[in-house]
Automatic annotation (TrEMBL):
Record membrane topology: Multi-pass membrane protein
Coiled-coil positions: 10-37
Residues of the Guanylate cyclase domain: 58-181
Localization (cell): Cell membrane
Protein name: Adenylate cyclase
PANTHER family for the chain: ADENYLATE CYCLASE, TERMINAL-DIFFERENTIATION SPECIFIC-RELATED, BLL5647 PROTEIN
Gene3D superfamilies reported for this sequence: Nucleotide cyclase (3.30.70.1230)
EC id: 4.6.1.1
UniProt keyword annotations, A-Z: Cell membrane, Coiled coil, Lyase, Membrane
Location (main, coarse): membrane
A GO cellular component annotation in the UniProt record: plasma membrane
A molecular-function term among this protein's GO annotations: adenylate cyclase activity
């Protein structure tokens, strides 16, 4: 009788362990969906807390063109479907090149290469992803974008309070990429990068870009030399 009870208790324990493992896997997947796999992994391995570190990264902004007008003429369900199609493609291309979609803000996405996971080829990956994004988005009717790519040193880490914080990056490259995106919306190729970012990319990627004039971007005192993909 005692042996039967022990066997039953052992089976119950094994079942409970399997249930806990399943719940733990679900929680990890849910966390990764909300904050990204790299940030989720970092939090699970090292813990989380307020603070940051300086990192050299490439920053990519991608923003829909004319979305405000489109939203005013579309039903809510159509707007959601359009945005989901757009963001699904952005995530797919970015993750293909080892980038991290830091956040969605309305109809734009902020993407980081080189944080939280270090990448020696951060600028190469960002520039390649930018070109592929435009090429793949061209196949989706009604979607046009502007993309800006910058590179440099940022503060990367958890920003906020002990009760609520998020992983993000802060620094001039973020501002520069956002301003380049504004200009890119008016360019035939839909992409603009800083020549500094191109200079830090691999030789193969550099050969696909050409540089142009120096411009003063809104909100910045330092001049930026523009770069864009060479025409095929």
């Amino acid at each position: 009788m005692a042996d039967d009870e022990n066997a039953w208790e052992l089976d119950e324990m094994r079942l409970r362990i399997k249930q806990l493992e399943h719940e733990n896997t679900q929680l990890q997947q849910l966390l990764a969906q909300h904050v990204g796999r790299d940030v989720a992994h970092q939090a699970l391995v090292s813990g989380s807390g307020i603070g940051g570190e300086t990192r050299f990264v490439a920053v990519l902004f991608v923003d829909l063109v004319g979305s405000t007008t489109a939203v005013s003429t579309m039903r809510p369900a159509e707007v959601v479907a359009m945005l989901n199609t757009f963001f699904e493609l952005v995530i797919r291309v970015v993750e293909r090149h080892g980038g991290f979609v830091n956040k969605f803000v309305g109809d734009e996405a902020l993407v980081i290469f080189g944080a939280p996971a270090y990448r020696a080829d951060a600028t190469t990956s960002a520039l390649t992803a930018a070109r592929e994004l435009v090429a793949e988005l061209e196949a989706i009717p009604g979607i046009q974008v502007g993309i800006g790519v910058s590179a440099g040193t940022v503060l990367a880490g958890n920003i906020g309070s002990a009760e609520r914080f998020e992983y993000t990056v802060i620094g001039d490259p973020v501002n520069e990429a956002a301003r380049l995106t504004e200009l890119a919306k008016k360019q035939p190729g839909s992409i603009l990068a800083s020549s500094y970012a191109v200079d830090f990319s691999g030789d193969g990627e550099q050969a696909l870009w050409e540089t142009g004039e120096l411009v003063k971007l809104r909100g910045r005192n330092k001049l930026t030399r523009l770069a864009w993909p060479r025409a095929n």
